[in-house]
Amino acid sequence: MKSHVFNCIRLEGKVAFITGGASGIGETAARLFTKHVAKVVIADIQDDLGQSIIDQIGEKGVVSYIHCDVKVEKNVENAEDMAISKYGKLDIMFSNMLEFLRNLIPQS
């Protein structure tokens, strides 16, 4: 049986990049990943919400926010580059771009 302590540190040393991380599922993932000792980069277009999450859960250097519109490839490249520059690597890509996907699905 796995111990609770093991479960709480299973992401220790990992760096996660979460698109759409300022609200909803992405926000929940960001909170969970930091609880499991990962460093997190939140990439979103909701700057006020993104900064609010940093203020709530962020210790300096543990969670970061960057403005990123996933519909603009250069935005994503810049955000990924920032994550790698700041943390030295990128282990987890959590692609949570629900609004973008909704726009691709025809509405009836």
UniProtKB/TrEMBL annotation:
Family matches, as InterPro entries: NAD(P)-bd_dom_sf, SDR_fam
Coiled coil start-end: none
UniProt keywords, alphabetically: NAD
The keyword Glycosyltransferase is annotated on this UniProt entry: no
Record family assignment: Belongs to the short-chain dehydrogenases/reductases (SDR) family.
Protein name as catalogued: Short-chain dehydrogenase reductase 3b
Species this protein is from: Nicotiana attenuata (Coyote tobacco)
Upper taxonomic lineage: Eukaryota, Viridiplantae, Streptophyta, Embryophyta, Tracheophyta
